[in-house]
C-alpha cells in the first residue's frame, strides 16, 4: 500500500535443507551435498508453503547461482562466514529440484519484466520467434543476464517494479546480496536531478522574477549547485541527536548531514541557513537583509554501525553522509554552506584553460553571487500534532531539568511541539505511541518521572462547500462601534472557498490561506500584480491589521474552540470612512475583518455547513484467527471502518491481519482492550492518516 504502482518481482528463491528418507546428513557430508545440491536441498517458491527444514541460503535467479551459508554464520567472523557459491549451469544433475525451480522462476521473472518494459518485451517476442527443436525454452537461451539486469534497473528507477529478495539478517544469511542489489538496482546521486533550491534573496522579489531566474539557470548550465559534480559545498542536516561526551556543543549535539555537492571537512566554517527562520522573518514583515549565523565544524565521527569514533582529519565528499560535532545552533532541516564559494570552474565551463561564457554572457560569477547571497533546501515539513498531553514534574526542583530535557527532545524530533506556561507544560505529538516514547525517554535518558493529565485530541473545523464553489458574505459586512471613546468603522466583503480539491474525505488539515483581490490592493494603493511575499514586506499598517484580523478570527470556529482548516479566505473589497485617519485605521480594519468572518461562519453554522474534523488513524491489528470476530465487533463499536481482513490458516496458532480506520479518540488505551480480547496474543500499530468529518 505504501508503494502504489510498484509490483513485487522476486529475484531470489530461499534454499532449505530437509530430511530425506530418514537419512542423517551430518557435518561429514555437508560439503558434498551443498556443492552438488542433492536431494536434501530444496528451493521454496511463491506458490507453495515453505518446506519444513533449515534455511541455509538462497538462489540468485538473475545470475543463476546458489549461495549456501555455513552453519552458525551469525557467530562466525567475516572470513569464515563467506557463503559457498554454486553456479547452477555447472551442475551435472540437470533434473535436481533447485535447478528446476530456479529455471521456472527465471522464466517468470522475464515474463514479469516483459509486461512493464518495452525493451524486454521486444526481446521476449524475438526469443519466441527463435524457437526450434533443440531449445526447450527459447526465452532462457536467448535473453542474457546483462539484459535482465538492465531491465531490472530501468524498471526499478521508474518505480514500476520492486525487486524482492529473501534472507535472515539475524542469522547472517542474504545480507551481501541485498547490499549488491542496492548498488545494482537503486539510483545513485548522478541518476537524480539536483535538489530544488531557493535563494534567500527571493523574499524581496516577485514570483515572476523568481521563475524567470530559475528558467535562465536551467538553460545556462547543466551542472547546478547541488549536483554531485558542482565544486561548491552544499549540505543538508537531516537528523540531530544528542550523545553525551560526543558533541562539542556542551549538550552533546551531533548533526547528521548529507553532502550534495563539494567537500565538507572538519574545522570548516559554515553558514547555517534555516528555512524556518526565513519563514518567521517573512511573517514578521521585516524587510531586513537576512544575516545567517556561522559556526565551525568541531570534528567528524565515523559512522560504523552503532560505533562513533572520532576522525581527526575528517572529510566528506559529495553524495556521502557524515556526523558533525561542535555545531551549537543547527536543527533538523538546516542547510550548510561554506563562508566562501569555490572558485573552481564548473565541469564543461573551461576551454583551453579559459572560462567559457554562456549564451547570455554570464559565467561562474553568477553561481558565486547566488552562493554568497545564500541558498537553502526546502527543509523538513512536520505533520501537525493531533494529540496534546499535559505533564508536570514531581517537584519544583525538577521543573528546570524537565524544561531542558524537553528542549533537547524537540530539537531531535521536529514533530514534537512543546508549550510552556507559568502554570503547566503541554507536549503535542502524532499519537499515543509518540507520547509514550517521549515519556519513556524522559525516564530512561534524563531520570525524570512526570505526572500526566488526560490526553486531548486536536480537532479542527471546516466548511462543507458545494464542489469548488465558495461562500460569500451578503454584500459588505459593516463594523461601526466606539471603543474607549474612539470610533472604529469599516466594511469588508469576502469569500470562503476550498483550499484544495481532494477526492479523499480524510486528509491532513492545512492552515487557512488569506488572499487579497486586486480591488483590495488598490484600496491600499498597492501594486495589483505584486506577489504575496512582496505584500508581506511592503504593506502599510492598515493592511497588516486587515490580514491579522482575518487570520486571527480563523483560529477559532463556531462549533468549539477549534481552528479552521482547508479553506481560503479571499478578501474581495474593503471600505472605510477612516482612510484618512492613520491612527485608528489599523484597529478598524482588524475589527472589520474579524467581524465579517465571524458573521459568515455564524450563518454557515445555522445552515449546518460547519463541521468538526477529527484525526483518524490507520490501524493494523494482528490477531489469532479464532478471535477475528471479537476484534471486528470491537472496532465497529469504536466507530471504525474495516478496510480489509487477511485471514490465516484454519488452525489454532494462525494469525490474521485486520486493516481499519479508527478515530484517534477511540483508540486511546486500545492496547489494554486488545490484550483482553485476544488473551494477550494480539498486537496493533497505528499511523496518522488525516482529519475527517466527525
Mean pLDDT over the residues: 81
Count of helix runs: 17
Distance between the termini: 25 Å
Pick out the low-confidence regions. Answer: 1-5, 21-35, 203-208, 280-289, 350-361
Query: Measured on Cα atoms, how large is the radius of gyration?
Result: 32 Å
Helical percent range? 25-40%
Classify the beta-strand content into a percent band: 25-35%
Give the overall shape.
globular
- Could you describe the largest sheet, including whether it forms a barrel? 8 strands, antiparallel
What class do helices, strands and sheet pairing give?
alpha+beta
**Strands side by side in the biggest sheet:** 13-12-18-9-10-17-14-15
Strand segment count: 36
Please characterize this protein's 3D structure.
- The chain has 694 residues and is α+β, with helices and mostly antiparallel strands.
- The chain is built from 17 helices and 36 strands.
- The strands form nine sheets. It has an eight-stranded antiparallel sheet.
- A hairpin with a 4-residue loop joins β23 (417-420) and β24 (425-429).
- α2 (97-116) packs across α3.
- The longest helix is centred in the last third of the chain and has 22 residues, at 585-606.
Question: How are the SSEs placed, and which strands pair?
Answer:
Elements: E1 7-10, E2 12-17, H1 30-36, E3 41-43, E4 54-60, E5 65-68, E6 84-87, H2 97-116, H3 118-129, H4 138-142, H5 145-157, E7 161-164, H6 175-185, E8 198-199, H7 207-220, E9 234-242, E10 253-261, E11 263-265, E12 269-273, H8 275-283, E13 294-296, E14 299-304, E15 307-311, E16 315-317, E17 321-325, E18 335-338, E19 350-351, E20 354-355, H9 364-373, E21 375-376, E22 387-393, H10 399-412, E23 417-420, E24 425-429, H11 432-446, E25 450-452, E26 456-457, E27 460-463, E28 471-472, E29 477-483, E30 486-498, E31 513-516, H12 518-523, H13 532-538, H14 541-553, E32 567-575, H15 585-606, E33 610-624, H16 628-637, E34 641-646, E35 655-663, H17 670-678, E36 683-693
Parallel strand pairs: 1-7, 31-32
Antiparallel strand pairs: 2-3, 2-4, 4-5, 5-6, 8-21, 9-10, 9-18, 10-17, 11-16, 12-13, 12-18, 14-15, 14-17, 19-20, 22-24, 22-25, 22-26, 23-24, 27-33, 28-30, 29-30, 30-32, 33-35, 33-36, 34-35
Helix pairs in contact: 2-3, 14-15
Amino acid at each position: 500500500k505504501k508503494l502504489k504502482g510498484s509490483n513485487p518481482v522476486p529475484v531470489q528463491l530461499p534454499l532449505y535443507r530437509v530430511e530425506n528418507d530418514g537419512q542423517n546428513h551430518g557435518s561429514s557430508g555437508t560439503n558434498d551435498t551443498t556443492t552438488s545440491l542433492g536431494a536434501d536441498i530444496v528451493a521454496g517458491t511463491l506458490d507453495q508453503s515453505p518446506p519444513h527444514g533449515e534455511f541455509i541460503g538462497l538462489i540468485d535467479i538473475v545470475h543463476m547461482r546458489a549461495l549456501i551459508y555455513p552453519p552458525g554464520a551469525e557467530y562466525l567472523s567475516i572470513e569464515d562466514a563467506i557463503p559457498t557459491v554454486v553456479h547452477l549451469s555447472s551442475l551435472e544433475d540437470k533434473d535436481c529440484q533447485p535447478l528446476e525451480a530456479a529455471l521456472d522462476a527465471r522464466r517468470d521473472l522475464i515474463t514479469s519484466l516483459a509486461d512493464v518494459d518495452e525493451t524486454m518485451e521486444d526481446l521476449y517476442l524475438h526469443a519466441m520467434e527463435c524457437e526450434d527443436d533443440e531449445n526447450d525454452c527459447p526465452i532462457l537461451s536467448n535473453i542474457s543476464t546483462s539484459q535482465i539486469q538492465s531491465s531490472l534497473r530501468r524498471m526499478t528507477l521508474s518505480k514500476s517494479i520492486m525487486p524482492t529478495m529473501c534472507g535472515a539478517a539475524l542469522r547472517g544469511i542474504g545480507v551481501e546480496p541485498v547490499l549488491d542489489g542496492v548498488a545494482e538496482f537503486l539510483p545513485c546521486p548522478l541518476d537524480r536531478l539536483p535538489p530544488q533550491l531557493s535563494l534567500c534573496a527571493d523574499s524581496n522579489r516577485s514570483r515572476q522574477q523568481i521563475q524567470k531566474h530559475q528558467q535562465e539557470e536551467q538553460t545556462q548550465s547543466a551542472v547546478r549547485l547541488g549536483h554531485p559534480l558542482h565544486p561548491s559545498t552544499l549540505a543538508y542536516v537531516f537528523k540531530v541527536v544528542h550523545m553525551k561526551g560526543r558533541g562539542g556543543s556542551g549538550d552533546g549535539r551531533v548533526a547528521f548531514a548529507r553532502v550534495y555537492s563539494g567537500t565538507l571537512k572538519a574545522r570548516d566554517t559554515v553558514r547555517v541557513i534555516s528555512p524556518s527562520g526565513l519563514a518567521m522573518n517573512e511573517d514578521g514583515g521585516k524587510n531586513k537583509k537576512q544575516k545567517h549565523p556561522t559556526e565551525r565544524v568541531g570534528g567528524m565521527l565515523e559512522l560504523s554501525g552503532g560505533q562513533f569514533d572520532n576522525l581527526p582529519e575528517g572529510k566528506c565528499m559529495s553524495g556521502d553522509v557524515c556526523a558533525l560535532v561542535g555545531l551549537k545552533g543547527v536543527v533538523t532541516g538546516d542547510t550548510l554552506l561554506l563562508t566562501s564559494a569555490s572558485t573552481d570552474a564548473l565541469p564543461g565551463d573551461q576551454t583551453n584553460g579559459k572560462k567559457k561564457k554562456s549564451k547570455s554572457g554570464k559565467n561562474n560569477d553568477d553561481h558565486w553571487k547566488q552562493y554568497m547571497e545564500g541558498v537553502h533546501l526546502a527543509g523538513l515539513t512536520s505533520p501537525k500534532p493531533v494529540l496534546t498531553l499535559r505533564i508536570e514534574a514531581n517537584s519544583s526542583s525538577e521543573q528546570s531539568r524537565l524544561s531542558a530535557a524537553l528542549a533537547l527532545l524537540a530539537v531531535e524530533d521536529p514533530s514534537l511541539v512543546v508549550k510552556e506556561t507559568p502554570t503547566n507544560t503541554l507536549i503535542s505529538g502524532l499519537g499515543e505511541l509518540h507520547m509514550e516514547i517521549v515519556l519513556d525517554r524522559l525516564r530512561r535518558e534524563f531520570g525524570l518521572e512526570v505526572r500526566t493529565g488526560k490526553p486531548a485530541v486536536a480537532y479542527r473545523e471546516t466548511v462543507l462547500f458545494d464542489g469548488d464553489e465558495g461562500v460569500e458574505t451578503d454584500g459588505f459586512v459593516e463594523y461601526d462601534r466606539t471603543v474607549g471613546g474612539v470610533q472604529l468603522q469599516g466594511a469588508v466583503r469576502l469569500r470562503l472557498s476550498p483550499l484544495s480539491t481532494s477526492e479523499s474525505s480524510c486528509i491532513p488539515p492545512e492552515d487557512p490561506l488569506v488572499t487579497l483581490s486586486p480591488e483590495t490592493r488598490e484600496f491600499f494603493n498597492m501594486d495589483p500584480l505584486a506577489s504575496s511575499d512582496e505584500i508581506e514586506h511592503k504593506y502599510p499598517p492598515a493592511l497588516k491589521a486587515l490580514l491579522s484580523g482575518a487570520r486571527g478570527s480563523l483560529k477559532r470556529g463556531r462549533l468549539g474552540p477549534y481552528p479552521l482548516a482547508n479553506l481560503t479566505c479571499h478578501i474581495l473589497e474593503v471600505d472605510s470612512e477612516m482612510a484618512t485617519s492613520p491612527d485608528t485605521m489599523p484597529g478598524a480594519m482588524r475589527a472589520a475583518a474579524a467581524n465579517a468572518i465571524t458573521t459568515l461562519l455564524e450563518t454557515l453554522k445555522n445552515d449546518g455547513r460547519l463541521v468538526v474534523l477529527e484525526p483518524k488513524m490507520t490501524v493494523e491489528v494482528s490477531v489469532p484467527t479464532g478471535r477475528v470476530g471479537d476484534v471486528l465487533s470491537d472496532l465497529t463499536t469504536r466507530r471504525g471502518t474495516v478496510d480489509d481482513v487477511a485471514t490465516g490458516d484454519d488452525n489454532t496458532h494462525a494469525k490474521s491481519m485486520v486493516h481499519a480506520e479508527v478515530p484517534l479518540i477511540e483508540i486511546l488505551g486500545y492496547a489494554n482492550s486488545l490484550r483482553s480480547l485476544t488473551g494477550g496474543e494480539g498486537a496493533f500499530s497505528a499511523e496518522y492518516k488525516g482529519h475527517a468529518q466527525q
